Please model this.
Amino acid sequence: MRRIVVNAELSPATHTGSAAGGVGHSIAHESAHKHVQGTAEYVDDLPLMPGTLFVATGQSSKPHARIRALDLSAVKSAPGVIDVIVQGDIPGKVDVAPVYAGDPLLAGDVVEFIGQPIFAVAATSFVEAQRAALLAKIDYEELPAQLTVEDSLAAQSFVLPQHQLLLGDPEANIESAPHQLSGEIYVRGQEHFYLEGQISEARLTEDGGIHVISSSQHPTELQKLVAEVLAIPFHLVVAEVRRMGGGFGGKESQAAPLACIAALFAQRNRRPVRYRMPRRDDMIQTGKRHDFLNRWKAGFDSDGKLLGVDMLLAGKCGFSPDLSEGIVDRAMFHADNAYFLNNARILGLRCKTHTVSNTAFRGFGGPKGMMAIETLLEDIARALGKDPLDVRKANLYQPGTDETPYGQKIEQHVLPELIERLEKSSDYRARRVAITEFNNTHRTLKKGIALTPVKFGISFTAKHLNQAGALLQIYTDGSLLINHGGTEMGQGLYTKIQQIVASAFGVSVHRVMVSSTRTDKVPNTSPTAASSGTDLNGMAAKDACDKIKADLIVFACEHFKITAEQIQFNNDVVVLGEQELAFPAFIKLAYLNRVALSATGHYRTPKIFYDRATAKGQPFLYFANGAAVSEVTLDCLTGEYKVERVDILHDVGKSLNPAIDIGQIEGGFIQGMGWLTTEELLWDEKGRIISNSPANYKIPTAFDVPDIFNVELFDEPNLENTIHLSKAVGEPPLMLAISVWAALRDACSSTTNYQFSPRLDTPATPERVYWALQECIAFNQPGESKALVTRGAI
Amino acid sequence: MRFVVNNVPVELAEAAADLTLLQYLRSQQHLMGTKEGCASGDCGACTVLVGRKGVDVMAYSTVNACICPLGSLQDCHIVTVEGLAAAPQEMHPVQTAMVECHGSQCGFCTAGFVVSLAGLQLAGGADLAEADIAVQRAAVIDAISGNLCRCTGYRPIIDAGLSALKKPAQVASFVQNWVPYAPLAGIDGEPARAYGRNLSDGVSDYWQPHTEAALQHLLVEYPQARLVAGGTDLMLEVTQQYKSLPQLIDLNRIDSLCAIHISDDEVVLGAAANYSTIEKALANLSPEFVALLARLGSRQIRNRGTLGGNICNASPIADAPPYLLVMDAELEIVDSSGNARRELLTNFYRDYKKTTLGVGEYLARIRIARAQLAQPLKLFKITKRYEDDISAVMGAFCWGGQTSNEFKIAFGGMAAIPKRASMTEQFLSNTEWCVAGDVDEEILAQACDLLHSEFSPLSDVRASAAYRMAMACNLLKKACYEFAAEASGKALETRLFSHA
Model:
């Protein structure tokens, strides 16, 4: 039994030794040198094992149909084909759904979206597999398909039951408010477009098990599903992830089917199998960010303060639940964004459509909920003739008005001060005046500006996922090896873990190696998602460090006849009362004295709970905050625009690595800007996705980055006891980009002298901006009512 | 076929004609730093440098390895990310700058960015080092215009590019370090057949003739062969549709098809001249067109893609044809017997993806009169994303000025073919739409009515029909506002960007 020594020196969460490159330093990403030299290995770069097979799938060409006949003879006899499987060939579980049932690995009698895999081919080359997969003859009996949110609402067809948040009495308070408004916005989804497409390689072990090497945010789920599909125990499956070429949520649940199919072929053929999705298949076959149709009705006073809000958030889930329960929940939990709603009803619907099942994407529903409230507050501002910033500020959570619709009280009020600082540093008011002047003197060009805040809840809303494990080993040369349950997708998690471990022992980061995430090293891991990677795994790693350190201190006290207070770990040296030992020498001494130099660590997030029955609880440990000011110029003749300047102030608590945190903020912002501007997911009337390649789906390029792009950290410690009092940073900055959309709408509105907020669904492509401007022109026509314009109804 | 990969000379006798450079690098050279992100030339993760012997030095340009046929690289020096550093323990200045500026996150796109920025150093680093920061920034952004990054938001990559520009001397030394290892001076073969391979279902050949006579001979001999210049469109059949292209005839080494001749009367553009070459040649003669080329495709695409390809593809949304239509460009078309004919581009397009090009014919040269080039010109391209996107509407407007008043209008994206708006042109040419620098809105409204009668565009993934129609009218208006203002010497701000 390990003795845990409670020691005053060790227990504070912030205790760190001085370490070169440790916590708080802007060290480079742990793989940066490998990245720039092209030596960082991704799954497809691994040397091919002899006999490796390659996979392609045969895909449904109908959105909803019964398969009458499936003729695979031409597929089987095609050059290079070794094996072809259908659903009936799966020895174990067919359903690979992450939470609720509904995701068959291969379709059975019924297909539910265009692109759904019906069979899989293994061939001796990638091209042979792709060519063979096109040769199937499939006879379909077409069934009625619902392709849009509207179709689903009309049919009242949902993948999961609805859920509702209720605060106070919204009906009565909207009714009795001095002013009412209602409106609607359609917020389109987003393709992840990780640069490395989905990929898994499966290798058979001598025990009949599988070693699967994958690009996945959730190795444990891969392990579980591969074992279930093959009908073998979990301990025969090892899932390994060294790094991903981007994830963004798209490799949380969507990586598993590739691993399962590769494993199945490996088991059947006793050969290694590599399944890489080419870009087009990836864009057709894997889930995306949900579209949301948001409708609202609100009552407010003459200052623009909300008295009551009634909101409907309808997410387009696709054909199966996948992760849509949590995603729509998170949309609902963020439909208040940073604002006190006073009285609120927030109804979340999970619409079933015969399209690919939508999935996690950075923000996990949060961005869509925020779009609803931000649109609403702007409409209120225009209706009252106020600057939207003033209405936003008037509604911020403050001490006393701090209860969210789900019953959690806001405890750390960061935003009032943060916004005040940003408003000043960005010179918002003076620029507002200059913009009005510009707009008065320009006929076809108009400028707009907006400041929008973000308050984002940190923790998984599925409580059990809020835990993590780590395994630390120290070797006798003083080098350390840390494994943990999180995965590296570029966000810098491994780097931060390295820094946390280095600081715990006061050693240089170069002594600390972070190696592949493997289910045989750290079991039962949670997905690296919900911005929680560092919060959870950093604490688990620190727990492992603390355990070994406690044993080392006990040993040193006995060995050197000193007290714990006389021991310090600093700058690669251990101070032991009067004497010092280099860290490696001390570790070697500890080993010779039979001290255990390996430990597991574990962490579970405290305080959080949520009761679905009452829709009340404290689902989040804390909130990360930020705000952005964006300025745009638009061309009224075409709807084209340019983002001229962006200023961001973002709250990461006490930063573990400012350079990495700023990288997350800038990257998240630009990705969010793409979501709201140029990235347009489109399906045709038959249910086929037509934005199916980078030629017709446009993520931002370097040209789209504003020339002036100021990003600063709001460097205040977290009030909660998180790892070194830092805050999560992965998702929250994405929603700072709402300021770009709001600035575009502001520029449109300027053509009505800010009396009217046109509808501006997202993405606000030049075409949508153009039509919004036409709505403004119509508003300006003589004879049009200048009263508050209401659109849509609940 | 002979070429050099990094410091290794390669002799290759056998390969499939449609083998891409990326497939070759990854599967046969085991150089895994070059990645496949999209296999369609859209993301740049596969960017490599290709050096070809210029007048006296090697000239390096970036290409998308994923859609570059290996056979086109006879005598070339291919430099991948692994070959940039002078020695194994060293890094190229761009690599160092990328680490220092935190320019990588997931790292998958990184090698492509590094190679693109190294390419910028080679192409113009020394001059750029002295340039104004705005010029440097524009050059860096142009260099990485074909590289997508989904993690960083680009700011640190742009910073890394700017930072590396401060080290021109170091960069130059890296180039010198390559050359002794690369025995390119000795490579001077010219086999018309680069390589081939016996396939189970026939023979695969990649031909690279050096003269038009040789080309004509091959056209007779191999009537089924496909012509490839840059391959930026053709190779998508291989990488996206998994088709096999067993017989390819490459036009890149025929000097008479690649050359650009500028005389006092006309500009003659070889059909196989790539866009980057045209940009340099026309920088002063047609700055509007050169500015449009920056948006036609990424730097990598412009280093390979050709004007002849853009024309012969006959895509209704191609960017160059509307410009060439208002320039009254003339095509020189040659058949396999060497007989040439000339045809106005206006008459070349018959229907959707159909041209007058007959069996055995090829487009040799494009001719534009110098007098045309001198006329006031407006080019506008409407897309969802500013850079490297396909047009929803492409508008070209040319006005003879107040004396002749001849108005020429052409659109891409508005019909099944790139098309002149002849009725609207005629109306405006015969109407006084501009008086003392002021545009007569009433007349413009009538012109727009005519455009409505001349075009009925489609709705697709890029735009709705209604938006396309509205854009045709508004681009015409915008052109008129600008023409009128310029004619009267007024300053008029109508553009978000300085061009296109």
Chain B has four domains: 1-186, 193-250, 255-373, 379-487. Chain B touches chain A through 84 residues (CB under 8 Å). The longest strand of chain B covers residues 362-369.
